[in-house]
């Protein structure tokens, strides 16, 4: 195993990443039930999500992106100031800030389930998400800049919404065309990264 890997990545297995058009990506995910908190199955899912995100060079990944219908996402990314953020959350609820206090920033956004393209999309530069960790403890996660974008993007996934669903018709069509051209190359890179990790 490589040095500096998260323990979750070392433990986890790499799962297939779902792609736009697959039904699990386009409906609201089921909440994690009280009985599932603290179970080995939930811990294993989180490890696998970290491993899958790592080989795909993602900022974060939602459970439905590995084919699991649950309100879970993980993240491992650097923000605009070079600070690394690593974590997971279940049943997240995004705080809706008053529109007057919200600053929208338009930046390129991509998605592991739309392999290849990046498109300009406006998102709030500050986000707060409330939920629970894998053991059922309450957590509050606050992000600014790129980390805020990640929190909003992943929460969208759990509501069955992809970033391309927020684009205009032409931009969405362009993104899908680019994906068709680039996806095989992206899949090959992910497979090579998994092989290097021995996964």
What features would you describe in this structure?
- By secondary structure, the protein is an alpha+beta fold.
- The protein has a single domain (7-193), classed as Peptide deformylase (Peptide Deformylase).
- It contains 4 helices and 7 strands, in the order ααβββββββαα.
- The strands form 2 sheets. The protein has a 5-stranded antiparallel sheet with strand order 1-2-3-6-7, with helices on both faces. Strands 4-5 form a two-stranded antiparallel ribbon.
- It is globular, with a radius of gyration of 16 Å.
- The N and C termini lie close together (10 Å).
Order of helices and strands: HHEEEEEEEHH
| Average residue-wise pLDDT | 94
Strand segment tally:
7
Count of all domains: 1
> How many strands, what sense, and barrel or not for the largest sheet?
5 strands, antiparallel
CATH third-tier fold name: Peptide Deformylase
Weakly predicted, low-confidence segments: none
Helix count equals: 4
Q: Largest beta sheet: what is the strand line-up?
A: 1-2-3-6-7
* Span of the ends, CA to CA: 10 Å
Known CATH architecture: Alpha-Beta Complex
Q: What is the 3D shape?
A: globular
The CATH superfamily label reads Peptide deformylase
Q: What is the alpha-carbon Rg in Å?
A: 16 Å
């Amino acid at each position: 195993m490589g040095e500096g890997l998260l323990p979750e990545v070392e433990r986890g297995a790499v799962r297939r990443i779902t792609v736009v058009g697959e039904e699990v990506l386009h409906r609201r995910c089921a909440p994690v039930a009280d009985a599932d908190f603290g179970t080995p199955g939930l811990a294993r899912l989180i490890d696998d999500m970290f491993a899958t995100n790592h080989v795909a060079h993602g900022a974060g990944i939602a459970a439905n992106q590995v084919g699991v219908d649950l309100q879970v996402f993980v993240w491992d990314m650097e923000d605009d100031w070079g600070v690394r953020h690593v974590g997971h959350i279940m049943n997240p609820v995004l705080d809706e800030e008053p529109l007057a206090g919200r600053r929208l920033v338009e930046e390129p956004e991509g998605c592991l389930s739309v392999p290849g393209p990046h498109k300009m999309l406006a998102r709030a530069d500050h986000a707060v998400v409330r939920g629970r960790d894998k053991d059922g403890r309450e957590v509050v996660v606050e992000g600014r800049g790129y980390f805020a974008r990640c929190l909003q993007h992943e929460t969208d996934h759990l509501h069955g919404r992809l970033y391309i669903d927020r684009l205009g018709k032409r931009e969405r069509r362009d993104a899908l065309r680019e994906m068709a051209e680039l996806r095989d190359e992206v899949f090959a890179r992910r497979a090579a990264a998994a092989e290097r990790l021995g996964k």
